[in-house]
Amino acid sequence: MADDVAYLNTGTELSGFAGARYIELAKRRTSLQADQKKIQGEPKKLGNPANNPAAKLSEDLKPIQTEVGELPKKMAACFLWKTSADYPHELIMAGETLFAGGDDPVAAFDTATGKERWSSPVTGRTQEEQRQPRPCPDHPENIRAQPQRDESRPGHQESRPIPLDPLGKMNGADQQAARE
């Protein structure tokens, strides 16, 4: 969410909506539904129909049911814009532009209006590049022991650690030392 605007990609539709307000209403709906369920279960607990608690419970349910019934309209009003879009894979925001990726196309949308600014064909599935952290060359997992001859003891080889570069390869000097 940016500036209380959240963006949703359903795979066939993009939308911008008042995220905080929508979440507030969704929580209220969940709370009311829990209250409604609790009140509806009360007659079963009481078990004595002579007291006629059903009328009281029915009265308690009316305002809850009314508010629950109004919430879908209030939640729908949170949506600032909706637009059809066949870009199910990625949604990336940069400034006031929302980039959406699909199978072969990529498109840019205005974050305020949802209007498509441009689109372009690409080859393959459009998605954000997953960047792997670069390995630390001095980390123990990135140091390999290489045999080294001990000239003072004929036939004896001793291992010494050789650090790898960030891509897991030995640098030129270490490659030369490993060959010797």
Write the layout of secondary structure elements.
Blueprint: E1 5-9, E2 13-18, H1 19-46, H2 53-76, E3 79-84, E4 90-94, E5 97-101, E6 103-110, E7 116-125, E8 143-149, E9 157-163, H3 172-179
In brief:
With 180 residues, the protein is α+β, with helices and mostly antiparallel strands.
Structure overview:
This protein is an alpha+beta fold and 180 residues long. The protein contains three helices and nine strands; from the N terminus they run ββααβββββββα. It has three domains: 1-84, no CATH class; 86-127, Thrombin, subunit H (Beta Barrel); 140-179, no CATH class. Helix content is 33%, strand content 33%. α1 runs antiparallel to α2 (53-76).
Helix content: 25-40%
Output the radius of gyration: 32 Å
Estimate what percentage of residues fall within beta strands.
Answer: 25-35%
How far the N terminus sits from the C terminus, by CA atoms, comes to 58 Å
Name the poorly predicted regions: none
Oligomer: single chain
Q: Mean pLDDT score, rounded?
A: 76
Indicate the structural class.
Answer: alpha+beta
Number of strands: 9
Largest beta sheet: strand ordering: 4-5-6-7
Query: Given the C-alpha coordinates, what overall shape results?
Result: flat
- How do the helices and strands follow one another from N- to C-terminus? EEHHEEEEEEEH
- Structural domain tally: 3
Describe the largest sheet: 4 strands, antiparallel
